[in-house]
Predict the 3D structure of the following.
Amino acid sequence: MQPRLNIALKACRSAADIINSIYKTKSQDDLRSYDHLDEHLYIHLVNLIAESYPFDKDDILGPTNIDVTKIKKKVGNINFTSNINNVDKYVWVINPLDCYQNFINKIPLFNITISIFLNGAVQASLIYNPVLDQLATAIKGEGAIFENRKIRNINTSSDKILYVIDDRNVKTDLEDILHGDERKFGSRSTELVYIAEGKLDLVIYSNIDIWDFAAGLLICQESGVLVTGSKGHNDINESRSLLVAKESLHKKIIAQLS
């Protein structure tokens, strides 16, 4: 998987040049006019990746929030799939800008994310912050790396926790065991890197699209945190929900929500 990951990173760094040329020279008001930037970046990334891995035979583009019809008109004859399960090809799930709101508000917490699936499982992923020039990567079975160092969530504190929960009802259900403070950063891929590093203790998303969590999924798994659907099941891709925590806390959350 390393060769594909290398190409993904090369494409990300090129897209980062486009982002920085805009972000670092435009005012906050000006940035609001770049509402189609994600589409432009997606096309740029796809074209660069396709130079090495054309999206036709062994590789295919996966689910995206970008209008596929527009992409095909501008890129040409490439193959897409909306289902990453049971496809005997490398499926690339690309999010060119997570998150747009942070970008336009001059908050430097947004990323380009790429994940590569095979037979329904993430094999490699990266999360790259173009402004801070920070990179997190993972290859299945080889661990997670942030800025050239292996990361493991080794936080064993049982006192106050830092958590992200996007559902008010879930927070209410957990109020008896949530002893700590909530933090939200806007960018879900950033939050998943933070929990992989041990900066957060719990992340629960009740409704999340695959392009928002796919890259962070593998990085979290390879860092030693437990990742399931919000009800504890393993079919994350279908449920569109995510529960991420160290195993001991994860068990408490599942027991409380059951």
